[in-house]
Amino acid sequence: MKNIYLFALFCILAAGAKAQGTTQYNKALADSLGADEYGMKMYVLVILKTGENKTTDKATIDSLFKGHMANIGRLAANGKLVVAGPIGKNDKNYRGIFIFNTKTVEEAKGLLATDPAFKSKLLDAELYPWYGSAALPVYLETHKKIEKTSH
């Protein structure tokens, strides 16, 4: 069912792009980003959720999340993490999302293994192949120009 929604979203985006008429295709940029003919590529979508570690020790939790945030920064700086952010309160224990700039779920699992919050099982994850705009890796450059305060 999720694939149907993703396909529908892709069709809507593609139709909108065609409706605009002209294209400003840049082959060198497309190639450098690994884009296919639609300007898209595969990533891995990660849904972060509460793990099985139920510790209540604030110092431990703070330390693990400090390491988690540092790991996010490192993965983003290395071009492996292109989207990260929290999810609002929900009944599924979902905490946030990552979109990894990797082609396989196995590679994404390896990246998660570098995160102290995952190593300690404070966080867990669901991983899915995801087809999205190949331009995602370059949006972070713009974000740095619009954020007033860095995390």
Automatic annotation (TrEMBL):
Protein name: YCII-related domain-containing protein
Superkingdom: Bacteria
N-terminal signal peptide: 1-19
Gene3D superfamilies: Dimeric alpha+beta barrel
Taxonomic lineage of the native organism: Bacteria, Pseudomonadati, Bacteroidota, Sphingobacteriia, Sphingobacteriales
Keywords on record: Signal
